[in-house]
């Protein structure tokens, strides 16, 4: 299986945040024998995001996304995946109840904008996020997979370790990527 990583957020393109997520995921995918063929960064623009995710969906066995799962109007990953797969999002009562309980526990009202974090499409399953309010998605259709995970590293790292990696490893058994690093000194790269 081969994979593609898409890091989402205008802040990445503006240099406000360094994209460590794609580097981490590329390293982790190699550990479970998945070849990463492409890594993209895209801002929070609906047309460009659709273009990037649609291309990834058509050419890669597995697409991993990071970012764009928050409650604000520029967080468009769910909506874009829905469009790419041609499916409608619907609020899930259990997810909504969970979100409401998180805000109740914080003694704060839940903003209406957070309701979109309780949506799902028919081909997706929820990836729990005990580190934040944005659950991930595991969408599977026509032999391809999209794994949508949050952008904050502590949320992504936990979700990858406990949700994404084990599921992908199950589907990619018996495959390994072996690498060897040779360190040299006293000779230039071209001379070597």
Description:
It is built from six helices and eight strands, in the order βααβαβαβαββββα. The chain is 36% helix and 21% strand. The two termini are 33 Å apart. A hairpin with an 8-residue loop joins β6 (124-127) and β7. α2 (21-31) runs parallel beside α6 (153-171) and α3 crosses α4. It has a six-stranded mixed beta sheet, sandwiched between helices. The protein has 192 residues and is of the alpha/beta class. The mean pLDDT is 95. The radius of gyration is 18 Å and the shape is globular.
Query: Which regions are unreliable across 5 or more consecutive residues at pLDDT < 50?
Result: none
Mean pLDDT: 95
Neighbour order of strands in the largest sheet: 2-1-3-8-7-6
* Outline: globular
Main sheet properties: 6 strands, mixed
Beta-strand portion reads: 15-25%
Helical segment count: 6
Keywords:
192 residues, alpha/beta, six-stranded mixed beta sheet, two-stranded antiparallel sheet, 6 helices, 21% strand, globular
Q: Nutshell version of this structure?
A:
36% of the residues lie in helices and 21% in strands. It has 192 residues and is α/β, with parallel strands linked by helices. The strands form two sheets. It has a six-stranded mixed sheet with strand order 2-1-3-8-7-6, sandwiched between helices.
What topology does this entry show?
Layout lengths: L1 E7 L1 H4 L7 H11 L3 E8 L3 H14 L2 E5 L10 H9 L4 E2 L1 H13 L13 E2 L3 E4 L8 E6 L2 E6 L3 H19 L21
Parallel strand pairs: 1-2, 1-3, 3-8
Antiparallel strand pairs: 4-5, 6-7, 7-8
Helix pairs in contact: 2-6, 3-4
């Amino acid at each position: 299986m081969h994979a593609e990583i898409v890091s989402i957020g205008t802040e990445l393109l503006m240099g406000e945040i360094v994209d460590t997520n794609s580097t981490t995921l590329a390293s982790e995918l190699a550990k479970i024998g998945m070849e990463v063929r492409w890594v993209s960064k895209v801002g929070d623009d609906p047309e460009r995001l659709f273009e990037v995710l649609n291309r990834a969906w058509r050419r890669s066995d597995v697409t991993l996304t990071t970012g764009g799962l928050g409650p604000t109007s520029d967080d468009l990953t769910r909506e874009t995946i829905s469009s790419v797969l041609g499916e409608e999002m619907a609020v899930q009562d259990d997810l909504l109840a969970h979100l409401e309980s998180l805000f109740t526990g914080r003694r704060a009202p839940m903003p209406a904008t957070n309701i979109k974090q309780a949506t799902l499409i028919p081909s997706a399953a929820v990836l729990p996020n005990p580190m934040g309010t944005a659950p991930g998605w595991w969408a599977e259709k026509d032999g391809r997979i999209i794994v949508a995970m949050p952008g904050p590293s502590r949320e992504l790292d936990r979700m990858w370790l406990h949700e994404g990696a084990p599921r992908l490893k199950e589907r990619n058994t018996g495959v390994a990527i072996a690498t060897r690093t040779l360190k040299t000194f006293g000779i230039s790269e071209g001379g070597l």
